[in-house]
């Protein structure tokens, strides 16, 4: 069972769930946030929280205050960032830190990576644009970590209506930074391909 902790933020209390790494010293800490339409029960977050500690990584899942309060709709991006940043600070993480998350959580991590002292960003289903609206691109957020010299890696569903892998690759300097996996904006019940891609990417994000 994870260690649960409530953390106060300007938007109310959030929660952090820590999954300890096997062994005395974790290779790195991976902090992940949830999306705007779901919570920490997303299959990819559940799988990574269970499997990465066995590989030596400590995993912390962040539950945003709006979700803790029982609201069904996430707040505006600035409110998400304003909660995320103090929660990361309160965790007092020492050593390499990869931040990331699913969908809206990936956007938060990209926008704030430099501010929280991350060593890299892991994006799961980055919502490059609203479905059917490629002109409303969020590529600037995706590239924000790189603007600060931080690596970013993306795991994207092959049929994601928010932007497929090729669309995401076109926005980054190296196409190998994006792994296409089966699925749409969600990855199915047992997204083993997401785990495999994450394990491939993490060394670059935590050194």
Automatic annotation (TrEMBL):
Recorded superkingdom: Bacteria
Ranges where the KANL3/Tex30 alpha/beta hydrolase-like domain occurs: 28-174
InterPro entries reported for this sequence: AB_hydrolase_fold, KANL3/Tex30_Abhydrolase
Gene3D superfamilies per UniProt: alpha/beta hydrolase
Stored SUPFAM superfamilies: alpha/beta-Hydrolases
Protein name (database record): KANL3/Tex30 alpha/beta hydrolase-like domain-containing protein
Species of origin: Nostocoides vanveenii
């Amino acid at each position: 069972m994870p260690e649960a902790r409530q953390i106060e933020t300007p938007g109310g209390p959030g929660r952090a769930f820590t999954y300890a790494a096997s062994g005395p010293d974790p290779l790195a800490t991976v902090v992940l946030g949830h999306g705007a339409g779901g919570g920490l029960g997303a299959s990819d977050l559940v799988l990574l929280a269970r499997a990465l500690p066995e590989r030596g990584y400590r995993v912390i899942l962040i539950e945003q205050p709006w979700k803790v309060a029982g609201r069904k709709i996430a707040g505006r991006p600035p409110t998400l960032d304003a909660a995320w940043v103090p929660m990361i600070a309160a965790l007092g993480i020492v050593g390499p830190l990869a931040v990331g998350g699913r969908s809206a959580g990936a956007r938060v991590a990209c926008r704030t990576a430099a501010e929280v002292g991350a060593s890299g960003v892991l994006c799961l289903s980055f919502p490059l644009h609203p479905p059917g609206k490629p002109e409303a691109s969020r590529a600037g957020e995706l590239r924000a970590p790189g603007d600060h010299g931080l690596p970013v890696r993306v795991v994207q569903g092959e049929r994601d209506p928010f932007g497929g892998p090729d669309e995401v690759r076109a926005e980054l300097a190296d196409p190998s930074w994006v792994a296409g996996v089966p699925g749409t904006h969600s990855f199915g019940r047992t997204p083993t391909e997401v785990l495999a891609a994450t394990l491939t990417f993490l060394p670059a994000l935590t050194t």
